[in-house]
Amino acid sequence: MLKKKICMVGHFGVGKTSLVRRFVDSMFDERYLTTVGVKIDRKDVMVGSETVTLMLWDLAGEDDLEQLKISHLRGASGYILVMDGCRAITLAKAVELQERITAQLGPLPFVAVLNKADLRDQWEVQESALAEHRWATFETSAKAGRGVEEMFLALAAKLLP
Amino acid sequence: MNLLGALGYAVFERIGEGSFQLSEPAPDWLPAGSIMEAFPFLEVFLPDAEEFWANEQSRSELYSDLWTQNELHFCAIALRGESNFLLIECAEQRFQQAQSFVQYAHEASLARDQIAKLSRELKRATQAKSEFLARMSHEIRTPMNAVIGMAELLTDTSLNDEQREYVRIFRSAGDNLLNIIDDILDFSKVEAGEIVLEQIQFNLADVLQQAVDIAAVRARAKGLETAARIEPGVPALLIGDGGRLRQILVNLLGNAAKFTDRGAIWVSVEADTDKGVLHFSVSDTGIGIPADRLTAIFDNFSQADAATSRNYGGTGLGLAISKRLVELMDGKIWAESALGLGSTMHFTARFGVAEAVVSAEPVAQKPLGDRRAAPRSRGLRILLADDSAENRFLIRGYLKGSGCSIDEVENGALAVEQFKRYAYDVVLMDTEMPALDGYSATRQIRAFERERNSRPTPIFALTAHAFGAARDRSLEAGCTDHLTKPIKKATLLEAIDKFVPSAAPSDRTEVSVEEWLKPVVGGYLEKCRADVAVLRVALDGRDYDKIRMLGHRLAGTGGGYGFQPITDIGGALEESALARDIARVSASIEDLDRYLKGVKAG
Questions:
Q1: Which of A36, A66, A68, A74 would you mutate first to test chain B, the one with the most B CBs within 10 A?
Q2: Most buried in the list B4, B236, B322, B484, measured by CB within 10 Å?
Q3: Range of the domain at B551
Q4: Mean of the per-residue pLDDT values for chain B?
Q5: ipTM over 0.85
Q6: What is the CATH number of the domain that holds B243?
Q7: Does residue B135 form part of some domain?
Q8: What totals of helices (H) and strands (E) does chain A contain, helices first?
Q9: Does A60 touch chain B (CB under 8 A)?
Q10: Which residue range forms the structural domain that includes residue A28?
């Protein structure tokens, strides 16, 4: 069976863990719980007629003290670059992470995600600023479950030949 | 390795690269199957561990990062020795500790961002609201001016009593509405941070009196006593924004008068030397404020209770504006009250002190409605005749800062000459002078006035003689009053205030006009000047109706444009025309003429 490692990366508090939880368990917890180290989950999905096991590596969000360990992306087939639409700084952080990952691991497939679409009226990430990067971008709400599955499946499809 | 097994580690011996053998009994949390299958995290740790095992120089153990799978938290440890080992630890305690630290840092950081964001939004929203209010106020004011102006013109047409009453109500409602709009505009300016306080010299007593004069109109109508008191130790001349201070006082006194049906309202000022601030109190014997509302009344659009707005009207913005202004003056505002007995509004404010002059005696409690009690020496044109340079210096010093302009001459002959050339509000005449003494000079001035048929100007004799005879001699010569040297500042000011005609403020008055009124003020004053001519014709023809009508219109408009004296004189005209008091009508017309000749809108 096909197995693919996918990493969740982004600034802390953008909803990486919640997206995985929504995708894997169809659940959402209002409470914010910081991820320490790596949280690993798996989920089988159908891409076309093929079943693929996605190994979801949810990497601790980067903050001022702790940098993302690029070594955790070893062996990854792709990654999900997560931003919080409500915090402009998370876009800047995503840009920085994407550059660092590409510099060390080469061009890995990824999708960009603007999470917290349920709070769209409070968004401060400028669409024009985001558009500059020409990323394949999904708007998701881990809370409402909107766009989550589509986003994971889109990346999974990207990873298959 | 028995010990490690006993400590709860899953212990694997490294047999070869990527090959491990369990060397202790398996802990119950260890999944069955291959170690690589069980712990995907090892994919990223083993390359580091292999490097570690291969390097003899490195330390004796290598810890992996923590990872989580199936709700359990793990850590891997590579050990080097005679054999190499890989340990897996179910690291619940270590995880909880690390998690709580990072969680704390992240939550604090998120909260800080959230606060910064909210504060940005709040600022933006407040700005937007203020701009909206300011724009709306302007938009409303333009048509309101037309409405009120039309009502004024309507007043001049022939109306029956009923119609006249309707128009009066219509006008007064319009005036009220404009006041409310002004409040809103002012408030939005304060909130948008657009108000910058002036730093100019002002006379505290003047400001206090002006505020009290305004409140006295309402107070008198309700039969309330009014009083003002400046405690000893309060500097007379301050540096700051006197206009805004007056606005606060007018507001507090206005509220006091509004919520008091019988009794008194009064204001006092004392110096709080410890804090270097002035402490103002405005008290009343009114309905009082419930204890649980004492703080909330300073909030925007807030009154003591909803019924207040029904019974007493108002926007509830006055105190909010006052609070902001007081804060701009580096002060605090608070309220004390006993329900049914009255309230006292306190505020402190910091001002610069213009001179080291401290009022020597407390200003006595005086009835506020009584205009003679008010120091009104401001803006007067004074002729001072004295041969002693020292005396002239002294008097000049007394009047410094009062806004008076003083012309000085050294003898009686020059005094007469000067008087014939220019109009003066007051003459200060030394009695003993070379060339022509004060008595003779006064006689000549009075003769000149009689020829010109003009009203006698107050002339104060300044003599060193305290005896009754000297006073008689002055009065006989035509002096208005007699002041004995050495003259005290308070005596001089009091005398001037006492005898300067009440409705004749001064020859030259600069009135500060609100920005939005500036374009129309010139036209308004022109119209008033034209009214003087009409009034004179009406006086000649004893047309009391016409005089009353014009008086009424002047009374209704002057203050609105910022020219309170026009309103006062208009009121006097209206009254005296109604009483057919020809002398008073005539005097009022001259007062108006004089005021209009001197007034300048700035």
A1: A36
A2: B322
A3: 508-598
A4: 82
A5: yes
A6: 3.30.565.10
A7: no
A8: 4, 6
A9: yes
A10: 2-158
